[in-house]
Design goal:
five-stranded mixed β-sheet; Jelly Rolls; alpha/beta; Transcription Regulator spoIIAA; 18 helices; 427 residues
């Protein structure tokens, strides 16, 4: 074909099965010979043959797109092809191509708007943050977690898809009486101004229903769009760097956590002020109150006698990767994070342990070196139970050791059950 950049990819060569580079070389040699060596002979070449080639190509294209397409394409798309062909005959090639592009764009927008941009939709009763919590708090999260929802969004957000998100959130707020709503943008490719208008509407719905709206996973370009349209910053909208931080904030809100400790809601409203005043005392809760439901009083006294008290300042490592797994630690106050050092020198938070939890038990039982660093986020107080003291406890007080091992089994089974629920919620 005249003007085509690659002969081997033209329709005529494709029909003739000449699809290699040799076809292009042969065509170039033939044209060179006709131009300089066999110019008089070209005039004797039968013109009907050349016209027949064009007619053949045209009829083959009509057969492919008019007859064969009828049996392959949906009726709507086949009707579009017929309309484009008719418009080309009546108005010309440019008009037909322009009409086809316009209608195809409309069909794309319509089809894409029907595709769900919500990748995952899960409640805080089944999907938890990486912050490790006591068993009693986990039980309460499973009970109250239905009041919080996380929606993982995907694709490109515009008026068609964002409106579906708003309607889904409205239904969840009305049917489940939500208190927290977290939107995860880490899989969103982009958004436009029309999507921001929908999020303005969602923020109004959340504000009128007393729902805390949270956003996370915003890439710089997405956050820039939200700031340019003045959706951010906004008093009623919380923004977090990742899903884990957002889920932790929601869990603290569900548990009414103050200073890392859980406060129960007073049954009598008159006692609310007294409960707030007691928060400082609760923040100093000791190991006895943490483990009271897991051990008998006598066994708890014995267990504490075998533990060593350690105090850590913020930023102090409890242990580092590669250290021997010769002890486990009860966290009595403060928070510690499990940090994994990456190849580029940065660190990634794998888990955070708060008061009332246990850290380091896996390496103690498996006799393997520590697999990550554990560092204090703030001032902490922990109780250390070394492998040597645990062995002595098993010899001198086997009944207390049985209660201790039972507690660890409950803890590990709770973590495994939570992981299974998270995986099930993502399927």
């Amino acid at each position: 074909m005249v003007g085509y950049l690659t002969n081997s990819r033209s329709l005529l060569h494709f029909k003739a099965a000449a699809r290699t580079r040799a076809a292009g070389v042969f065509t170039a040699c033939l044209c060179l010979g006709a131009a300089f060596l066999f110019t008089p002979a070209v005039s004797y070449f039968p013109r009907p043959v050349l016209a027949g080639l064009l007619v053949f190509l045209g009829l083959s294209m009509l057969r492919e797109w008019v007859w064969d397409a009828f049996f392959k394409l949906p009726l709507l798309e086949y009707t579009l092809i017929g309309a484009i062909l008719l418009l080309m005959v009546l108005q010309g090639l440019i008009a037909g191509v322009a009409f086809g592009l316009l209608v195809a764009s409309v069909f794309f927008v319509y089809s894409y708007s029907r595709t769900s941009c919500i990748r995952h939709n899960f409640a805080s009763s089944t999907h938890f943050s990486n912050r490790e919590r006591p068993l009693e708090q986990i039980a309460l999260l499973k009970e109250r977690g239905t009041k919080a929802r996380t929606l993982v969004l995907q694709g490109y957000l515009f008026f068609g898809t964002s409106n579906a998100v708003v309607e889904t959130c409205r239904e969840l707020i009305e049917t489940e009486k939500l208190e927290f709503l977290l939107l995860d943008f880490r899989m969103v490719q982009g958004l436009d101004a029309s999507a921001v208008l929908s999020f303005n509407k969602l923020e109004q719905i959340c504000r009128s229903n007393g729902v805390a709206l949270c956003l996370c996973g915003l890439r710089p370009e997405l956050e820039a769009v939200l700031r340019q349209t003045q959706f951010l910053p906004r008093k009623g909208v919380k923004v977090f760097a990742d899903t884990d931080r957002g889920l932790e904030y929601i869990e603290d809100g569900l548990l009414e956590v103050i200073g890392g400790m859980m406060l129960a809601t007073p049954a009598n409203p008159a006692d609310a002020q007294a409960a707030i005043g007691a928060s400082a005392i609760l923040a100093e809760m000791d190991l006895r109150r943490i483990l009271a439901e897991q051990f008998t009083p006598a066994a708890l006294n014995v267990l504490i006698g075998y533990c060593e008290t350690l105090k850590l300042k913020a930023g102090t490592p409890l242990f580092k990767r590669g250290d021997p797994g010769d002890a486990l630690y009860f966290i009595e106050r403060g928070r510690l994070s499990v940090l994994l050092r990456l190849d580029d020198g940065q660190t990634k938070r794998l888990r955070t342990f708060g008061a009332g939890t246990v850290v380091g038990e896996m390496a103690l039982y498996s006799k393997q070196p520590r697999s990550a660093d554990v560092v204090a986020d703030d001032s902490c107080r922990v109780r250390k139970l070394s492998a040597e003291n645990l062995a002595r406890l098993e010899r001198e007080h086997p009944e207390v050791a049985i209660q201790f091992h039972t507690y660890v089994v409950k803890l590990l089974s709770s973590r495994l059950a939570a992981a299974n629920e998270e995986i099930r919620g993502l399927l």
